What we know:
- It is a single chain.
- The protein has 147 residues and is mainly beta.
- It has a single domain (6-146), classed as CATH 2.40.50.140.
- Helices cover 12% and strands 53% of the residues.
- It has 2 helices and 9 strands; from the N terminus they run ββββαββββαβ.
- It has helices at 59-68, 131-138, and strands at 6-13, 18-22, 25-39, 45-56, 74-83, 87-95, 100-106, 110-118, 144-146.
- The strands form 2 sheets. It has a 5-stranded mixed β-barrel. Strands 6-7 form a two-stranded antiparallel ribbon.
- The radius of gyration is 18 Å and the shape is globular.
- The model is unreliable at 133-147 (pLDDT under 50).
- It comes from Actinomadura keratinilytica.
Amino acid sequence: MDNRFTVNIAGRLARDPELKSYDWGVRCELQILVILRKVNRDGDVYSAERTIRVTTLDTSLAGRIAREFKMGDRVEVVCDDIRPGRIWYDPSAFDPQTGERGRWKQGRERFIIAEIKKAPKPKAAAKDKTADAARQAEVEVLNGVTG
Length: 147
């Protein structure tokens, strides 16, 4: 059985690429703003924004991303690995349901970039579509997680 997976993400860069230097090379981190279509209990469809963190540990890819991409660019990213967020204990956290102090917390996961490219501009939205629907057409998550 092949345990490989890919995650395809399409959206806009929420900020400029962030380069960080280490002894082993350079890492580049991106934050991609995506809009997800959701359905509430009443069956109403609404949009929710989410920021997804993606990272490359490849020094040459990091340099190319820093040169070619900037905040607001539409991007399509293929990721082939995931790193879990850091886990830590916060003694000052308060749980109102149990009344207890202290809680374990986990940071957000980040996906590792295999490929990245600029996404084409979306086709013009029809005049009868709502602004929310037009925005949904502009940025959407592709494929999700595939196995």
